[in-house]
Amino acid sequence: MPKTPVIGIADTMFARADMGSLAEQTIRREAPQAIIYRVTVPGIKDLPVACKRLLEARKCHIVVALGMPGKMPIDQQCAHEASLGIQWAQLMTNKHVLEVFVHEGEGKNDQDLAEVMRNRTIKHAVNAVKLLTDPGWLRERAGTGQRQGRANARPLKL
């Protein structure tokens, strides 16, 4: 557990809302002592290298990667490719990158889409802080149906 968490935020210009600023505000509220580095790139396929640079050059302990794939099939393919790149960045650095993608087709309308973006961004920003500062917090919630973006699912009894 680092004394002073160093958290990276990588976001995109393609997103229809400023998810990066919301993540930054949330992290500052949850971990005022954290050092935050933020980089904005054009689109989601630029996120993997941005994340890797934050982890290696800026020595971030974790990165929150925020992006918004469009509705078209090519956008979904690009999101998948970006996701694979983010996974590689994690494996190459042995550090977490929390992928926060909100697909444009997820919303019933603009208001609903904005709520999904808000909910998912805040919850993942909190998760990033907790992974670094209080991993037991996440373990306490294991198997409880926690969701980012929509209401939590009901847990099942085993």
From TrEMBL:
Gene Ontology process terms (BP): riboflavin biosynthetic process
Gene3D superfamilies registered for this protein in UniProt: Lumazine/riboflavin synthase
GO CC, alphabetical: riboflavin synthase complex
Species whose genome carries this gene: Candidatus Iainarchaeum sp
NCBIfam families: ribC_arch
Gene: ribC
Enzyme class (EC, first level): transferase
Keyword Transferase: yes
Pathway note: Cofactor biosynthesis; riboflavin biosynthesis; riboflavin from 2-hydroxy-3-oxobutyl phosphate and 5-amino-6-(D-ribitylamino)uracil: step 2/2
EC numbers for this chain: 2.5.1.9
Top-rank taxon: Archaea
Catalytic activity reported: 2 6,7-dimethyl-8-(1-D-ribityl)lumazine + H(+) = 5-amino-6-(D-ribitylamino)uracil + riboflavin
Alphabetical list of SUPFAM superfamilies matching this protein: Lumazine synthase (SSF52121)
GO molecular function terms attached to this record: riboflavin synthase activity
Pfam families: DMRL_synthase
UniProt keyword list: Riboflavin biosynthesis, Transferase
Family: Belongs to the DMRL synthase family.
InterPro entries attached to this UniProt entry: LS/RS, LS/RS_sf, Ribfl_synth_arc
UniProt-recorded name of the protein: Riboflavin synthase
